[in-house]
Amino acid sequence: MDSSAALVIFRKALEKFVVFNEAEWIVFTQHLTFSTLKKKQYFAAYDKVCDKVAFIVTGSVRYFHIKDGQDITGYFSFENEWVSSYKSYLTNQPSLTYIQALEDTRLINISKKDMDAMLNNPLLAYKMERFGRLIAEHYLCCYEDRVASFITQSPEERYLNLLSTGREILQRMPQHYIANFLGITPVSLSRIRRRLILAK
Amino acid sequence: MDSSAALVIFRKALEKFVVFNEAEWIVFTQHLTFSTLKKKQYFAAYDKVCDKVAFIVTGSVRYFHIKDGQDITGYFSFENEWVSSYKSYLTNQPSLTYIQALEDTRLINISKKDMDAMLNNPLLAYKMERFGRLIAEHYLCCYEDRVASFITQSPEERYLNLLSTGREILQRMPQHYIANFLGITPVSLSRIRRRLILAK
DNA sequence: CCAAAACGTTAACTTAAGATAAGAATTTTT
DNA sequence: AAAAATTCTTATCTTAAGTTAACGTTTTGG
């Protein structure tokens, strides 16, 4: 797949949030950069400012923390989704999480510098504000559900819930990543799975 | 405190996000409504669409879920902060949480209808998009930290962390609310506190 | 001002999760 | 193809959390 094919996919995905006319699109695309990450390469790292957001054309990434020498998975993003260490990007503070490619991954990047330029360019400003609003709101909704699951559900319930709605993650991720994602250890998840099989 | 005093406070708080000129401010304020909640009155309720966001002039609110007949506190908002069942507001879906006044509370409301009107009013559209973006981004950062705390910290660590940064919540909220907020039961929090006292 | 409700702690018991280690199966790397 | 690393399960032991109930204290509301 070449860059122009990637742009077609990207434009289509963007249109869920904002629709550009041709003049706007030309300027917008001048602020994009293409890149690839080899499997295990880092998109963001602990203690470094993450100065970009990116759209995943193909591939996937894993967000993780290191705590007491242990690798704890917090989230995943797949093709057609966005990736960034958002708080770091938004605040210019060092990232608390690592983000690593799970497989060879093609990205379309918008650097903070380019985003700010677009937000200050009268031709694009309005639509970029709108785009920023809608995408932040989209992820806000995801987070709201995720926090609610930690408050109101047991680890087993969170797993059952993931079973019923999280096909892609379940099929593509090793179980110890999923365990961390659910807020428990891999050993615990294995036991939960055992319990569920026996109860069935 | 009368409405105009409340508006002064509100305008000042808003200016962290967006600054209105006088003409814009006049139109903007026409889209606001003032209201009060008596202690224990609801701002939002389970299964009802929350069709507004509000700024808390004075008072405070508690977000909670009911699960198996039990009341589980998820969050708090205090004066000078915003309150909404955001996902419900943004998506027009029924709210999953109740939001209740903890004390008599004065609010400045923006209904979804008014917000949409402003987003479609050329005089305000740009600044309202910007405002929406910045506020969603602000809460996104809060959520990012909160999710990370559930993934990477034990209940005791979350409590210690709250001790060091959450003065207002700790001083004003009963402990069983705080326990739920941390993702544990009131009995558990009481034991954690006991352990910490003994260890000291 | 009194009765009722709410609050925080403690205890006893049950259940589940964390830590660690071992081992088998699978995958990746060289 | 062999070696190394990863993955998942299982077992043991320890620790902590959930559940329920009781009790004294404080707060609230009529």
Automatic annotation (TrEMBL), chains A, B:
Ranges of residues in domain Cyclic nucleotide-binding: 37-120
Record InterPro entries: cNMP-bd_dom (IPR000595), cNMP-bd_dom_sf (IPR018490), RmlC-like_jellyroll (IPR014710)
Entry superkingdom: Bacteria
Pfam families from the UniProt entry: cNMP_binding
Protein name in the entry: Crp/Fnr family transcriptional regulator
Species this protein is from: Mucilaginibacter corticis
